[in-house]
Amino acid sequence: MRTAIAEIDPDALRTNLARVKSLCPGARVLAVVKADGYGHGLLRVAAALAAADGYGVASLDDAARLREAGFRQRIVVLSGFDEARDLPEAAALRAELVLHDDSQLERLGAWRGEQLCAWIKLDTGMHRLGFDCAPASMASLRARLAALAARVDPVVWMTHLACADQPGHPLNALQQRRFATAIDGWSCPTSIANSAGVLLHPATRSGWVRPGGLLYGLSPIAGRSGADLGFVPAMRVKSRIIAAHRVAAGEGIGYGAVAVADRELRVGVVSFGYGDGYPRHAGPSARVRVGARLAPVLGRVSMDLITIDLSGVPEAQVGDEVELWGPGLPAEHLAEAAETIGYELTCGVTRRVRFVEKAVVSRTAEAQGTSVSMTCST
Ligand SMILES: *Cc1c(COP(=O)(O)O)cnc(C)c1O
Q1: Is 341 in the pocket of ligand 1 (CB under 6 A)?
Q2: So what's the pLDDT on residue 268?
Q3: Mean pLDDT within 279-303
Q4: Among residues 144, 81, 84, 91, which one has the least CA distance to residue 114?
């Protein structure tokens, strides 16, 4: 039996939601649970985050899974709908659709079912999804929505910041100004903030906030871990050492012999590879946690295995547990070594990893095992 396990901590999810709420008093929270709850498991995440005001998903399929499991909260489909046949399904699921493109308004023109709630997304500068927010375009958008009033109820006006993780970026202020101008005179609730907005842009902490990453204890800011920002990682990915041996100086380790022992090394083999979601492009700064210590990853990541340098962990033995990322070793640390972000790591844990729910009983004891922050570059 493979020993790769992803432990999901519902208490961490709850704690992180409470912290978001305390940062955004008076705002409503749309908990973003797309991509199977950032890889943590949609239904278990939704259950832990039941105190949120609604869930943000990327597909009607996810909305259906939530309704089938009995969740009655508001559900917002962040990319809206693509086809006419999505509309009866959205109505049946009481899912709210994000509208962002003229093609959707055309399809709604032919909709004869009940009135649907919609979030109207404006493109204020990110140039991904959203209606153009220039004054002339806004006038025509408002006229088109008015003509569709029997079919669509625009309940929230939203936009998305392109550079929210960079507090000094001029696009942040520009996007907020354009948004304010575009919706001037409408009394609808608004929604701007993602996780980085919640953390760094107080003016966006109103109406509906839409955090994803922070709820999972993931950092939206480069160079900081979720824990650095006061959030608790909700996923711990772990496995075990299944072999250990000595490799003489000058010998290569793993595929391509890209790692060469510069002295005699004690090498451990961990049952976890890219087939489980370990990033194959992790560079030489990648570490795993073994007990209270960090061990460097050696050579290429293979499908089922990674090799680690146990020279600095003499007490480690076959059978010992290894943390790949989690509360004892920030996902952001490995993400940096692999030139990606923590979000991609949690989304990428594969189906053969066994998911279990486990609250971390004593977080402080856990943290004392080793203190690894983004500034520690061992
Ligand atoms: C994914 C997403 C979010 C959440 O982003 P985080 O960085 O995870 O907080 C918010 N809004 C929209 C429209 C999204 O697609």
Answers
A1: no
A2: 98
A3: 97
A4: 91
The neighbouring-strand residues paired with 246 are 266
Which atom from ligand 1 is nearest to the alpha carbon of 213?
8
Q: Does 195 sit in the ligand 1 pocket, CB within 6 Å?
A: yes
pLDDT at 364 over 60: no
| Active-site annotation, residues | 34, 255
Closest ligand 1 atom to 210 CA: 10
Quick check: helix, strand or coil at residue 268? strand
As a whole-number percent, the residues of the chain with pLDDT over 70 amount to 95
**For ligand 1, atom 8, which residue shows the shortest CA distance?**
212
Model confidence pLDDT, tens digit, residues 214-236: 999 999 999 999 999 999 999 99
Output the CA 10–ligand 1 centroid distance in Å: 20
CA–CA separation, 204 and 198 (whole Å): 7
The pLDDT score that the predictor gives to residue 370 is 43
Mutate to test the pocket of ligand 1, among 32, 34, 161, 200 (most ligand atoms within 8 A of CB): 32
- The 3-state secondary structure of 38-79, one letter per residue: HCCCHHHHHHHCCCCCEEEECCHHHHHHHHHCCCCCEEEECC
212 C-alpha to center of ligand 1: Å?
A: 6
Mutation to probe ligand 1, out of 128, 129, 210 (largest number of atoms < 8 A from CB): 210
pLDDT digits (tens, 9 = 90+) for 322-336: 999 999 999 999 999
Q: What is the DSSP letter of 326?
A: B
For ligand 1, say whether the CB of 194 is within 6 Å of any of its atoms: yes
3 state DSSP class of 110 = coil
Going by C-alpha positions, the residue among 60, 73, 69, 66 that lies closest to residue 17 is 73
pTM of the model: 0.94
Nearest protein Cα to ligand 1, atom 4: 212
Give yes or no for a contact between 195 and 165, defined as CB atoms under 8 angstroms apart.
no
| Alpha carbons 54 and 71: distance in angstroms, whole number | 10
26 pLDDT higher than 60: yes
Q: What is the radius of gyration, based on Cα positions, of the chain?
A: 23
Query: What distance in Å separates the CA atoms of residue 18 and residue 24, rounded to the nearest whole number?
Result: 10
